[in-house]
Each structure stands twice: as structure tokens, then as C-alpha cells.
Amino acid sequence: METMVRMGELAISDTPGDVLVSLGLGSCIGLALVDKRAGVAGLAHIVLPATTGTPKPEAMNKFADHAVPALVDGMVERGASRMFLQASLVGGASMFAGTASKTLEVGSRNAVAVREQIARRRVPVVAEAVGGSRGRTVRVDVTSGTVSVREAGGTEEVLAA
Amino acid sequence: MSIEYTDVQLDALRELANIGSGKASTALSMLLGRAVDISVPKAHALSFADAVEAAGDHEQEVTGIVLGIVGDLDGVVLLLITPEDADTVCEILGVEPGSEYAPSALGEVANIVGSSYINALAEMTGMAIEPTPPATATDMLGAIVESVLAGQAHAGDVALMLDSELAVEGSDCSIAFMLVPSEDGVGELLERLGLG
């Protein structure tokens, strides 16, 4: 079954056959974590680098500083081993390159924040499809632990197997 | 911080959008030399995820042109047009579709349409606001809309989208139009309307 992981959402699965999907990532980052031995995979659709103000609990996973630890802890709770976690980063594009508005340049700041958070949890990043100016769709296959990416106008390619 | 809007507030915002898109359609009509119809604007207060969903098929290819708003109101105007309709607009303007001039022609259309919308807002609310130059991207709809929303995001998880559609008569071509104020921007708009 395909589970859509929408903006600011996070999903973890250990059900064989499940596929976690974020469609059309722009400046957002899709952070995929897999533990192939345990057959657990997770995906967070991260919107912003750091929490601002006092968001409602259900909005917390928008932010890298909350979503990354929540995803790592959630994976471990579902039976993944922290030692065998592998991370892939997808997205963080700058869709409107050259725009005067700095608020639209969130993509690269998101990538920096997610890398920092993931390094703090000592999870290795095995693959990245980050930056540039194209939107991307990411799929995480729970059974195989395969992460695949499709860029706008392109075909689906395996990013991490 | 949780933000909810009342029906009265949404109605008032919809009315703003209505007048704004009326001005925008006049500008587009003069530019293209064709009659332009506007749809009844919709005001959505949605979670981010639902807002992207409401825009349409995530992976559909569209051209998005974004104009920032600076001054008393923080926000953006986003115009969305399918590649086919973008070609039609170029043809009407006498620019070869897909040529190197096409993106700047579309940017200019968005600039004129978006600016008249923003000017109408300024007149109605008494706010000093100006558009920033347009930026154009042709990509997945979801990627374009989420990037625009992310740029406006603050603590809340509610995106306010005021959208309408401009349809060019006799050409089967339309431009969707969205005003996405930042959360602070919505409060400011409502306050100016006496509904804060």
C-alpha cells in the first residue's frame, strides 16, 4: 500500500509491501530512514529548518529540529536498530531561482538543518538528491529499503538500494 | 498558535479577492485584447498539507509565477498556468511558445496581472504595498505550491489561500490566481477591514 506523507507529516512502517511516498517535494526535504535488517522504514516531509514560535503539537513535524529526532526515535520504537539506520535526503530545491524574496530560498537552509540534525544522531547519510531547481517525488519501499526519486519531467531512478 | 477564521472574516477576504481579481482580469484583458472572465473567488483556510492537495494533482506539470508583496502586507501572489495555456498566452501576445522569450513574456503577464491585484488590495485597505519582480518556474504543481507555502510559513499550520481563475474567452485558456498572505499578513488584512 502507498502511504502519502504530506507536507509536515511523518510516517513509519514495518509492513512488507508498504511504500512511503512524498509527491512533488520543492523546497521541502523528504528524509528517508531505513533499517534493512529490521525491515523498518520511515519518511518525514520537512518544511522548515527550525521551530519558530509555539506551534501546535500536530504541526511540530514541519520543523527539522523536531521531525528528525521524532523520526529516529519512532524508528527505534518500531524495532529498528539505531546502529543500522541509513538516511537519504531528497528535495531542498530552489524552485524560483534568482528571486529577490529570501523567504523562497528555504530549500538550502532545510538541507543544512536536516544534515546537522541527522549527524547529531550519528545516522549516516548514504545518498542525497538535494538542491537544484527541480521538484522531486520520493518513494521508500519498506520491504527492500530502496529509496527512489523522480525529478519533474524525468523517470524514476533508484537513489539508495 | 492556533488560527481559525470566522465565516464573516472569510467572506470579507473573499470580497477582497473578488475586487482584486476583477482589476486583474481587466488588466489581462487589455494586455491580450480579449475578454476575460473571472470565477467566483474561493477563500480557503487549510492546513499546509490540505492546501497543497486543494491546488490539484501534485505531479502535474505547471508554470508558476510568483510575485512577492513587500510593505505593510507580507505575502505572495502566485499565478499558475498549464504549459498548454502558457503557449496559448504566448501566441496571443505574438511570442513564439517555448522560445527564450516565452518565460519573460509570461513573467510580464504575471507582473501586470499581479500588480493590478496588489494595487487593488492597497486601495481597498489603505496599505502601502508593492510587488517584487516575478520569478517563474515550470515544474510539479505540488513542488511549486509547497515551496510558496513554506516561504510564508510561521508557527501556525494554517495557510490562507484566496484563489480565483481568469479565463480568456474564445481560447480555452485560463490562469489560476492565488494570494497567500503570511499569517501575520492575514491579521493585518483583517484589521484593516475592521474584522481583526
SSE sequence of chain A, one letter per element? EEEEEHEHEEEE
Helical fraction of chain A: 10-25%
As residue ranges, the low-confidence spans of chain B are none
- In this structure, how is the largest beta sheet of chain A organized? 5 strands, mixed
Annotated CATH architecture of chain B: 3-Layer(aba) Sandwich
Mean pLDDT across residues of chain A:
92
What's the CATH first level of chain B? Alpha Beta
Oligomer: heterodimer
Number of strands of chain B: 8
Count of individual beta strands of chain A: 10
Characterize the overall form of chain A.
globular
Query: Which stretches of chain A are low in confidence, meaning pLDDT under 50 for 5 or more residues running?
Result: none
Order of helices and strands of chain B: HEEHEEHHEEHEEH
Description:
The complex is a heterodimer of chains A (161) and B (196). Chain A is of the alpha+beta class. Helices cover 18% and strands 34% of the residues of chain A. Chain A has 2 helices and 10 strands. Chain A has helices spanning 64-77, 106-120, and strands spanning 2-4, 10-13, 19-25, 29-35, 40-46, 86-91, 125-130, 136-141, 147-151, 157-160. Chain A has a 5-stranded mixed beta sheet with strand order 1-3-8-9-10, with no helix packed on it. In chain A, a hairpin with a 5-residue loop joins strand 9 and strand 10 (157-160). In chain A, helix 1 (64-77) packs across helix 2 (106-120). Chain A is globular and about 40 Å long. Chain B is an alpha+beta fold. Chain B has a single domain, classed as Chemotaxis protein chec, CATH 3.40.1550.10. Chain B is 46% helix and 29% strand. Chain B has helices spanning 7-32, 48-55, 83-93, 102-125, 141-152, 183-192, and strands at 36-38, 42-47, 61-71, 75-81, 129-131, 135-140, 158-168, 173-181. In chain B, strands 1, 2, 3, 4, 5, 6, 7 and 8 form an 8-stranded antiparallel beta sheet that branches. In chain B, helix 1 packs across helix 4 (102-125) and helix 2 runs antiparallel to helix 5. The two termini of chain B are 16 Å apart. The mean pLDDT of chain B is 87.
